[in-house]
Amino acid sequence: MIIVMKPKAAEQSIHAVTAYIEENGLQVHLSKGEEVTIIGIVGDKSKLSTENLIIFKDVDRIVPVTESYKLANKKFHPEPTTVRVGNTSIGPGNLTIMAGPCAVEKEEQLLCIAKAVKAAGATILRGGAYKPRTSPYSFQGLEEEGLRYMQEAGKAYGLATICEVVSQEAIEAAVKYVDMIQIGARNMQNFILLKEAGQSGLPVLLKRGLCATIDEWLNAAEYIIAEGNPNVVLCERGIRTFETATRNTLDLSAVPVLRTRTHLPVIADPSHSTGSYKYVAPMAKAAVACDADGLMIEVHNDPAHALSDGPQSLNFDKFAALTEELKPFCQLMGRSFGV
Ligand code: PEP
Ligand code: MN
Fold this sequence. Notes:
15 strands; eight-stranded parallel β-barrel; binds manganese (II) ion; 11 helices; alpha/beta; Alpha-Beta Plaits
């Protein structure tokens, strides 16, 4: 439930309401807009008498929140959230591009990819050091060594960095080296990992599970935020459907749906969703056109020899051509590029 205070409600009135809620053993989530303050209530509402709340000074109305996610809910926090990542940010007004190899393979390789993606306008370097591969015989990642290379490449080219984590051990290593952690599609409902990510202190990119509904996805985000970490970004990366022409089906309708349900930033991943470099550019443009806050794109110096996801990786020329083509889309959508 949320309590909407009257415009310009006095601090004292806000305090009286929050104190009453807390005295009843519930938690408060305050969202202060320019005019109106919204007080969100988290916990067992049966402990609280709403009839009493409505007579508190400066209370305008009480609105039930039927969704099970609260802190991620737009009703709790009507203003869009901007998430800071190293020297850049993800949120309204910006198109943030994360680019880099599927997996960190070698130090020199990562440095040359970082240089190329930076030159083309990316502000976050992506690279997997812990790879959740479908087959146990596929390359599993360089682990901590890979994280070290990510830090080095990020520093060398002024890029923020993001790496996927698959375990508590990986989180503990990642906090030493990177600016953001990623929970991959396969772990979207690994609730223990979500809680640990919530305690990491780093911003979290939460990818949509292969078969997850939007509701399940937002509940997964709630797990992270409930640990005291509000810096969550959602990434639509395609879902499983009957279609086999693409690796997954990029559900771009999730972007406008999420806008109505959550204040969290939303980005799209045209690489893992399509599975082919040929479809990355059109779907990247479509994502910007439907108001995504950013893109995650796999880029490799030599896709034919990549240790993972070569077929969907763009080479440097294709990536640079794409970012040029995205600029007018950004302008139309009122977003600055590469900030
Ligand atoms: C990745 O980003 O490298 C990745 C494995 O993505 P996903 O979890 O979306 O498959
Ligand atoms: Mn990949």
